[in-house]
Design goal:
35% of the residues lie in helices and 15% in strands. By secondary structure, the chain is of the alpha/beta class. The protein has 2 domains: 1-43, no CATH class; 46-236, Rossmann fold. Strand 5, helix 9 (212-223) and strand 6 (228-236) form a beta-alpha-beta unit. The radius of gyration is 18 Å and the shape is globular. It starts with a helix and ends with a strand. 37% of the residues are buried.
Length: 238
């Protein structure tokens, strides 16, 4: 429930920087989840259907545990935990978190969704890294902010410089699966000063679309000696 202080801050910020909910168009009514409104935020729901244990893609067959794509092309990561579907209010919240000046506030609220995930024990948590060019352009790494939330909730340390991105691979959103794989091939390297032999590592990102980025991250980690890689994302595109 909003306190008097929260309502005052929300009203003051809306007066200075009016924001409309990108889902319904109504005025944002809680600064902690701006620019979304309360009704749209509370419409966000966790995945409640059967998904592939490896990549979290939806499964049509009852009782199935792995998708056809993962059978044909076994990924380097072992499993994926995703809170929700990349659609509707969750999609708009993630877009606002990534591209608008709401990141530092929204990350706390988005981070609460990780509480619903039954993550396995691991040694390290690492964010999907950005290239230097992308990091300078955006000003922050949204995956690192989320990785810190996972770290706090599951008491696993974050190593932000364990995995590095060696080059800018451009925008992946409009690329097809094969184009993503080609663009991302060997784009990640492990920091040789960080020992990861026989370690279970959780890699955190905001969204898994085709899984190409996370797979390349897992590939670099496994080749460097990691025993297991688990992917954790806020949303899975389906």
């Amino acid at each position: 429930m909003s306190t008097l202080k929260d309502r005052f801050i929300t009203g003051f910020l809306n007066f200075l920087f009016p924001s409309e909910c990108p889902v319904c168009g109504n005025m944002s009514d809680d600064y902690k989840i701006a620019p979304l409104c309360k009704d749209c935020w509370h419409s966000i729901r966790p995945i409640d259907f059967n998904v592939c244990r490896s990549c979290a893609a939806p499964l049509k067959a009852a009782g199935a545990t792995i998708c056809v794509e993962c059978i044909r092309n076994e990924p380097w990561f072992s499993n994926t935990f995703a809170y929700g579907v990349y659609d509707g209010a969750l999609k708009e919240a993630i877009i606002a978190f990534k591209y608008a000046p709401y990141s530092r506030i929204l990350v706390r609220q988005l981070g609460t969704f990780f509480n619903a995930l039954n993550l396995p024990q691991a040694n390290y948590i690492i964010p999907v890294p950005l290239s230097k060019k992308r990091l300078i352009h955006r000003g922050f790494n949204q995956s690192l902010l989320l990785a810190r939330e996972v770290s706090v909730k599951f008491s696993v340390p974050v190593y932000y410089d364990l995995l590095l991105k060696t080059r800018d691979t451009g925008q992946q959103a409009k690329r097809k699966r094969n184009e993503r794989k080609k663009a991302l091939k060997n784009a990640f390297v492990v920091n040789v000063n960080k020992g990861i032999d026989d370690k279970h590592i959780i890699v955190v990102d905001d969204v898994m679309t085709t899984g190409a980025t996370l797979n390349e991250c897992a590939k670099a980690l496994k080749k460097a000696g990691a025993s297991k890689v688990t992917c954790v994302v806020l949303a899975r595109a389906i």
